[in-house]
Write a structure and sequence with these properties.
5 domains, six-stranded mixed beta sheet, alpha/beta, Rossmann fold, 960 residues
């Protein structure tokens, strides 16, 4: 076996091609060239074609045969005799079944949550892969003498020796127990279908072919672009030595010493000679076209990366590499490059996760519906599913496509108006109440179809379904909703359907497996997360390839732009499998952090030695504003080469004149229609902030409410108002026909019992949508005895309930500054009206779902929130609801501190009611006259009024 070294710089491919052609000429045969990955295949073939000998012997008229290792193994002579390789998902499912059958394993490994068993199964499979990799060098190269059972004993002793080496005695017992469990799983999973074992068998079949088939013998050129891990290196050496007994073997390895820019890129333990070599390499590095650029903001850096790529394209460089050390930044740069149009083809070789595509998002929306409780999903979950672009609503509802968007908008508006946050019942009530004047039955049909499909998953049999049955049900759902047809027209959707098909095939090879529905849904999401979707770029004169650092080996590019070169992301590393420490992983011949760092240092050295135009970019500030330096490798390089000093990103130049913000104010616009009606809340807005009144009541602007997850305090207040109205109306009608209600003790018990029942009934619909409401119901029920005591005390003074939710109002006439007379009707709904039959008097009560302390603050600001005064004036002028004059107006607190025994503190009476109403007349005249006269409407409200103001985004308070 002959070993050749290649310097991995810009001439590496040419040097490699010359060696290959020399071997072909000497042997007068077409050699077989094996690369570790498929990335350099095209570049090597181009180099071979470019350097083809001018006088070709007939025996080498064709290019040498070039394959990646994985492709070559699939062409193995006896591959059809080897069982198909188990997929990762199939092996995880197999392991999951065993973990589920042994709950003590989950207890031992402290797995929690619905995805705990699934995560444990994934970790076990990853650990078993490392064990398989460590045993492969001990296997026979004759497939006929391969004995996995005896080789398993070798692994047990090898693992025991590794544990003895890696762990101290104190941890030995604990680790040995875990090791025994892993070995049991490895024996369970280990077979010729194991990926590592199958790879060994494929290589062994080539050894047998070279040994017994003379016509198959030809030179084997084995190219190593990286330093293999210890177990892989041992396996490769054994394979090549076995081949060397029958065919010429040429091993091409990279000589890193001649291009390494850091000592660790040469070897793990650097020497003084290595340091001198690195210094020499740094001094010979061409720094004329290498730039180090940083920007503090993520967006600025993405724009700078796009500008650098655009500059290279303008200079005539047609093939640009965007090295994605920071994948998020690379994706943002890719979005910015889209503005260059079809003249630039963008190929993303980093591989999107299939879960990030819109097809996967559509499927995920349906899976989230399936996870919803039996009462129904949240409104946001439902709307997210209905808005996915793959849902065939025209077919589902048998309606025109143009109507579908309007239907979904109408449904969303109905849910927003009624604040139907969750539960099927609340959704039906919302659409039947109607956001539009006419009820649209198609919305009911739509909800019914979705609920019926979701209901099938909520049956008892589907709570722990067979995986195969769940997959069939899911595919039926996709067909019923028309999503399958939509997926077939989308590249990512088509891959998603293929993934589901392959998952079905993998499950069919296993024994029937049951798992809880939530864990099966996690399985689907995990498979989507592991599936890679690669976006294909269209042919064009210029091309940008987005790829990881490792994929730049032996590739042709005109320029390289690398993003993410900060100390946090370069170098990057992956953790060892869950059950292995760094030291144990290294003893078993697996990857180590030091090995990963060394390989990345070599890749970066090779990149800087291979390309003329290189831009290294990084963000100088983290998300929290903390400073970020360049990668330590770049900093050390800058110390040797001052020409590589960091440059700031070229921010777009902007100019402007600062204009200080002033208090927002507005004037009535000529021709602006003025309201003819006004509610007490509108007048309160005028008093607290005239600008808010201008925005909301004159311009009619409203903030669109969202379906957030917080409990709506206003909804609770409205519910209590309805409960009390219904209760007092029932009390009023019952006491006429039941004399026993005149007995104070019986009356108190009856009132408490019926108010409890009315409260349960009133909160029932809310509880169906949100179980958190139960806490508010219990809080109110604790208030009922005190509330009844307050009511009885009030009745003892002669006051009786008369009416509730009574609409009252009055006409108010005033003159503006231009002597124009105007009339506005001010009206609203009073919460409760009581009468005193003996004194022939009336009283207005206003319920507040607040504590008495907050009500006292309202009393101090009565003229700014004169709701009770407006209702008093309305009843006194129009005698609506009663002919008696209003002599009392009170606020009633529905949230009392129950530790205080004084029930009368629940209400607070307005002092000097008649005088206050007279003062209100003057105030109304002044305020309305000023608005109608065109006076300035300024935003001068206190912060308490601005905190939840819908107009704050317009008045810009906080900027002036």
């Amino acid at each position: 076996m002959r070993t050749l070294t290649i310097t991995p710089n810009q001439n590496a491919l040419a040097e490699m091609a010359e060696h290959i052609w020399a071997i072909a000429k000497a042997s007068k045969t077409r050699p077989l060239v094996i690369l570790p990955t498929a990335g350099p295949n095209a570049s090597l073939r181009q180099a071979l074609e470019r350097l083809r000998p001018t006088a070709d012997p007939a025996s080498i008229m064709f290019l040498p045969e070039v394959h990646s290792l994985s492709d070559w193994l699939e062409l193995a002579p006896d591959i059809f005799l080897i069982p198909d390789q188990q997929s990762q998902t199939e092996r995880i499912l197999q392991t999951y079944a065993s973990v589920g059958a042994n709950p003590e394993l989950q207890t031992w490994f402290a797995t929690e949550g619905e995805g705990g068993a699934w995560s444990l199964a994934q970790a076990i499979v990853s650990a078993c892969d490392l064990l398989s990799q460590s045993i492969v060098p001990h296997l026979s190269w004759d497939p006929h003498t391969l004995d996995l059972k005896s080789d398993m004993h070798k692994l047990e002793s090898a693992l025991q020796r590794a544990i003895d080496t890696a762990y101290p005695k104190l941890a030995h017992a604990l680790v040995s127990k875990e090791a025994n469990i892993l070995l049991a799983f490895w024996r369970y999973l280990g077979s010729v279908r194991d990926p590592m074992i199958r790879k060994h068998l494929a290589l062994a079949s080539y050894v047998q072919q070279f040994a017994h088939q003379e016509q198959a013998r030809r030179p084997l050129i084995w190219i190593e672009t990286i330093e293999p891990q210890a177990a892989q290196a041992s396996m490769q050496s054994q394979f090549l030595e076995a081949c060397a007994h029958h065919i010429p073997v040429h091993r091409l390895q990279m000589d890193w010493s001649s291009i390494a820019l850091w000592p660790e890129a040469i070897r793990a333990e650097a020497t003084a000679q290595d340091d001198a070599q690195v210094l020499s390499n740094c001094n010979t590095l061409n720094t004329q076209s290498i730039q180090c650029i940083s920007a503090s903001r993520f967006e600025d850096l993405a724009w700078e990366a796009a500008r650098r790529i655009e500059a290279h394209l303008k200079e005539g460089r047609k093939h640009i590499a965007l090295v994605a050390q920071d994948r998020l930044l690379a994706r943002r740069t890719r979005a910015l490059l889209a503005r260059l149009g079809s003249g630039v083809s963008i190929a993303d070789e980093t591989g999107w996760k299939l879960s990030t595509t819109r097809a996967a998002a559509a499927l995920h929306a349906w899976l989230e519906l399936l996870r919803s409780p039996s009462e129904g999903p949240s409104a946001s979950t439902l709307l997210e599913f209905l808005k996915n672009p793959f849902l065939d609503l025209p077919h589902l509802l048998n309606t025109q496509e143009s109507h579908c968007d309007l239907l979904i908008t109408e449904l969303e508006n109905a849910l927003l108006i009624k604040q139907a946050r969750s539960s099927w019942v609340s959704f039906y009530l919302a659409i039947e109440a109607g956001a539009s004047p006419e009820y649209d039955p198609r919305l009911h049909t739509l909800l019914h179809v979705i609920r019926q499909r979701v209901g099938q998953w909520q049956s008892k049999a589907m709570q722990t379904p067979y995986c195969a049955n769940a997959l069939i049900q899911l595919q039926e759902d996709l067909s019923a909703f028309g999503m399958k047809q939509g997926f077939e027209q989308d590249a990512a959707g088509l891959q998603l359907l293929q993934m589901l098909h392959m998952l079905g095939l993998q499950q069919s090879k296993l024994a029937p497996l049951r798992m809880p529905l939530n864990e099966w849904l996690i399985l689907l999401k995990t498979v989507m997360e592991e599936e890679v979707y690669r976006e294909q770029g269209a042919p064009s004169p210029a091309r940008v390839s987005i790829l990881p650092l490792s994929s730049t080996r032996l590739r042709y590019f005109d320029a390289v732009v690398m993003v993410g070169c900060d100390e946090r992301q370069l170098p990057a590393y992956s953790e060892p499998p869950l059950f292995f420490s760094e030291s144990l992983c290294q003893v078993l011949g697996g990857s180590s952090i030091a090995w990963q760092f060394r390989q990345q240092a070599r890749d970066l050295s090779q990149l800087m030695a291979s390309y003329q135009y290189i831009d290294l970019l990084w963000q100088s500030e983290g998300a929290s504003g903390e400073p970020l330096g360049a990668s330590p490798w770049i900093q050390r390089l800058q110390n040797h080469l001052p020409k590589l000093a960091t440059l700031p990103a070229k921010a777009d130049q902007r100019s402007g004149v600062a204009r200080p913000s002033t208090m927002a104010s507005a004037h009535r616009l000529p021709g602006l229609p003025m309201p003819t009606r006004m509610s007490p809340s509108a007048y309160r807005a005028l008093r607290s902030c005239p600008y808010q009144f201008y925005v909301r009541n004159l311009l009619g602007l409203r903030k669109r409410k969202g379906l957030d997850e917080e409990l709506d305090a206003s909804l609770l207040g409205q519910t209590l108002h309805q409960i009390l109205r219904n209760f007092f109306q029932e009390l009023k009608s019952t006491q006429l026909r039941e004399p026993r209600l005149q007995d104070p003790h019986y009356r108190s018990a009856w009132m408490q019992e019926h108010l409890h029942q009315a409260s349960e009934q009133g909160f029932l619909k809310l509880l169906e949508g949100d179980k958190r409401i139960l806490g508010s119901l219990r809080d109110w029920q604790k208030q009922i005895p005190s509330f009844v005591e307050w009511q009885l005390e009030r009745e003892s003074r002669g006051w009786q309930f008369h009416d509730a939710e009574l609409k009252v109002g009055f006409e108010f006439t005033f003159t503006d500054a231009h002597h124009q007379e105007h009339m506005v009707r001010i009206e609203g709904y009073t919460d409760r009206l009581d009468v005193h039959a003996t004194n022939r008097q009336a009283a207005i009560l206003d319920y507040k779902h607040q504590s008495p302390d907050k009500i006292k603050k309202r009393a101090d600001q009565l003229m700014d929130d004169p709701q009770l005064l407006l209702y008093t004036k309305a009843i006194s002028e129009e005698h609506r609801g009663t002919q008696y004059p209003v002599v009392e107006a009170e606020w009633v607190a529905l949230k009392m501190n129950l530790k205080k025994k004084e029930s009368s503190a629940r209400s607070l009476t307005v002092d000097s009611l008649a005088e206050q109403v007279m003062a209100l007349d003057k105030q109304l005249y002044q305020d309305l006259s000023a608005v109608w006269s065109g006076s300035s409407l300024q935003a001068f409200a206190p912060e308490s009024a601005c905190r939840y103001c819908e107009a704050r985004g317009i008045c810009r308070k906080g900027m002036w």
